[in-house]
Design brief:
The strands form two sheets. Strands 1-2-3 form a three-stranded antiparallel beta sheet, with no helix packed on it. The chain has a three-stranded mixed beta sheet with strand order 5-4-6. The chain starts with 11 loop residues before the first strand and ends in a 10-residue tail after the last helix. The chain is elongated, with a radius of gyration of 22 Å. By secondary structure, it is an alpha+beta fold.
């Protein structure tokens, strides 16, 4: 690590702390040449392999913007979307790989979105899973109904 002040090619780590969300490490460093201190932030890189083979960095913002379209007109807040994006990132990072297929990210979005809002889930799934007919919607709705019969959930009121 080059010192940003004197460009000395080495530095000593004085202190390390994990960020609140656990996705990065902040290191306090000291240059042995000039004695000045500086901070660095280390994160594990995660790249998305797009369908056309192009690599791009993982972005929670892209998840939020994609899911926001499915949640239009639904009782879903920006905070809900931020939590969903965080859950998706945690699930994707748990795979332990530095590159992940865009398709796998879409699959990781479906379970937390289903918990958040079933209508938004159906909207997202209809595009993501390329529903071709009403039969695809009916099959997905039938699965949701079966799960409700097994595990009924309290319904949201209009006032929430």
């Amino acid at each position: 690590m080059f010192c940003p002040f004197c460009r000395h090619p080495d530095s000593r780590v004085v202190d390390s702390r994990t960020s609140d969300d656990g996705t990065s490490i902040r290191r306090r460093r000291q240059c042995p040449n000039c004695g000045r201190r500086f901070s660095t932030t280390e994160t594990a890189s995660l790249n998305v392999v797009k369908r056309n083979g192009v690599l791009e960095p993982f972005s929670r913002e892209k998840i939020i913007s994609g899911v926001r379209k499915a949640c239009q007109g639904r009782p879903v807040t920006d905070g809900d979307l931020a939590v969903l994006a965080q859950r998706v990132e945690e699930a994707v990072r748990a795979s332990g790989t530095s590159q992940i297929e865009a398709n796998d990210i879409g699959l990781a979005i479906l379970p937390p979105l289903r918990e958040l809002d079933e209508v938004a889930f159906l909207r997202f799934a209809s595009v993501y899973q390329a529903f071709d007919s009403l039969d695809d919607f009916e099959a997905s709705i039938a699965t949701l109904r079966e799960e409700h019969a097994d595990h009924p959930r309290p319904s949201r009121s209009v006032d929430e």
